[in-house]
Design goal:
3 domains; 17% strand; Endonuclease, Chain A; 19 helices; seven-stranded mixed β-sheet; 507 residues; single chain; eight-stranded mixed β-sheet
């Protein structure tokens, strides 16, 4: 295991050095062109100016950061933008993933009676559901939903369900690290394979950097477990598409049970080890018809990683009958969906449709101008807007950007709370006692534009109230940020925050 850890570290350092060498090369190339090929340099400057004009005319506010970077580093900044700043992956990759989704998502058929029912009975929030349906994600009833307000409860419930699997297990996670959680799950998966259960694991390469090596893959293969690694970073350094990570977290068991939320397969998520104080995470367990969308989302990402794979769809469909009020709508998004990504669109519509309150829990409050304006507009319209963020951050530089966003929000009536016991990793939105979203989506540039994400839109069910009550009880463990205290930040902290906010799309 020590060799495994060193291998992962070496691989990560190697990729990091290759990336830094690219940045240095860009800067040196700019200097070289300036000194030796002034005409070419001037042409690059002209292209930089034209790019800035194009960005200014674009309504997307995040591009202001790139404008500043290009102006400060005219040629190198231009290279950086074309390699990293555009929200789309290359068109060939986009087309490939769209075709995969189209093939698989065609098997997710909307029950028209359910769609008509929510439209008649719950017109206030129907636009959110309609938006997601137009993006290809059906809304379901007859699905039981359990909300978990702490990571260890999610993991324990999932482990118990894994033990009962009879047909298949799909696991898709961003981070997997060696420890108590993974060892216990691996033991169960091994036993299940011996019982004839099909087991597929889909992990992101960046998130499994330490554990993912030849020995790890061989071990899983010897156990009969199928493994696919999403977007290997060492293969994509040159074009920086290693930046597009699979941040989805999905467990599907026998087609009837599905899990999602903030947790990964690592000990800190269950508070077995302490990294940043108490780690609070949340998640959902679905049982019933709604699990089918998660199964299809998993199959799409699996096929995006392994183009030769073929699925017998009927084999994986839910086969339980559940009578349950309320509605569930699993959905997903990714860079291939830009500039109209369902992850950002769902959050924006939740904020804009709130009438009485909207409560948001997020580890990263890295807002673009449009979402900040939406929150401010909601607060100024009399909506009770509250946001819980970590008191102990996992990344100091992201925390600095979090803090830089406090001022204008608080001035406009938004209330912000820091979770004092530690790090809050939950990604929740709940509104008006009517609807909620729980999943993997952070309120930052990466989740809305770069990463593959997933979540569940909930309407008119008990889990919505559970999420609200959890927010209110968590708030009691928080410190509310006061504007006068925020205004007294030292000058050097303001300067650091100013710089980090400019480059926030790259964080």
């Amino acid at each position: 295991m020590i060799k495994s850890k060193y291998y992962g570290i070496i691989r990560g350092v190697t990729v990091g050095i290759a990336f830094l060498l690219q940045i240095i090369t860009m800067v040196l190339l700019a200097v070289y062109l300036f000194r030796g090929f002034f005409i070419i340099y001037l042409l690059m400057e002209l292209l930089s100016v034209l790019t800035v004009f194009a960005l200014v005319n674009n309504a997307e506010s995040y591009k202001m950061s790139w404008i500043i970077i290009i102006l400060v580093l005219p040629v190198a900044g231009l290279f950086l933008y074309f390699m990293w700043g555009r929200k789309r992956r290359n068109s060939k990759e986009n087309k490939r993933i769209y075709e995969i989704e189209s093939e698989i998502f065609d098997h997710m058929v909307q029950n028209t009676e359910v769609a008509e029912d929510i439209q008649k009975q719950h017109p206030n929030k129907v636009q959110i559901s309609r938006y997601l349906r137009k993006k290809g994600f059906p809304i379901y009833n007859n699905t039981q939903v359990t909300y978990y307000e702490i990571g260890e409860d999610i993991i324990q419930a999932m482990i118990e369900d894994l033990k009962k699997a009879q047909k298949f297990i799909f696991l898709e996670y961003f981070i997997v690290s060696d420890g108590r959680v993974w060892k216990e799950i691996l033991e169960i998966l091994t036993q299940k394979v011996q019982e004839g259960v099909e087991v597929k694991l889909l992990f992101d390469d960046f998130g499994t950097l330490i554990i993912n090596n030849h020995a790890f893959r061989k071990d899983l293969e010897s156990r009969g477990i199928e493994l696919r690694i999403f977007n290997p970073i060492h293969k994509n350094v040159a074009r920086l598409s290693f930046n597009y990570r699979n941040h989805q977290k999905i467990t599907v068991i026998d087609g009837n049970i599905g899990y999602t939320g903030g947790i990964n397969l690592a000990d800190e998520y269950a508070n077995y080890i302490v990294r940043f104080g108490h780690w609070k995470d949340t998640g959902l367990r679905l049982y019933g018809e709604g699990v089918w969308s998660f199964t299809c989302i998993f199959m799409a990402m699996w096929k995006a990683t392994d183009a030769e794979s073929v699925f017998e769809y009927d084999k994986y469909r839910p086969n339980v009958k559940v009578k349950e009020d309320g509605y569930v709508q699993p959905f997903a998004g990714g860079p291939h969906r830009n500039p109209s990504n369902p992850t950002e669109g769902a959050y924006t519509r939740m904020i804009n449709k709130a009438r009485d309150y909207i409560y948001i829990t997020t580890p990263y409050l890295v807002l673009d101008q449009s979402m900040r304006d939406d929150l401010i507009s909601a607060a100024q319209s009399g909506v009770d807007v509250r946001i819980i963020v970590p008191g102990i951050p996992d990344k100091w530089y992201v925390y600095m950007v979090n803090v830089s966003n406090y001022g204008k929000l608080i001035e406009s009536g938004v209330r912000i709370f820091e979770y004092k016991p530690g790090f809050i990793h939950a990604k929740n939105v709940v509104s008006d006692d009517e609807c909620a979203i729980c999943g993997t989506i952070n309120t930052d540039y990466r989740s809305f534009y770069l990463h593959y994400e997933c979540g569940v839109f909930l309407s008119e069910m008990g889990a919505v109230y559970d999420m609200k009550n959890d927010f209110l009880s968590t708030m009691e463990k928080c410190e509310e940020i006061q504007l006068d205290k925020w205004n007294k930040r030292p000058w050097y902290q303001r300067l650091i925050q100013f710089v980090l906010k400019i480059i926030s799309p790259m964080l």
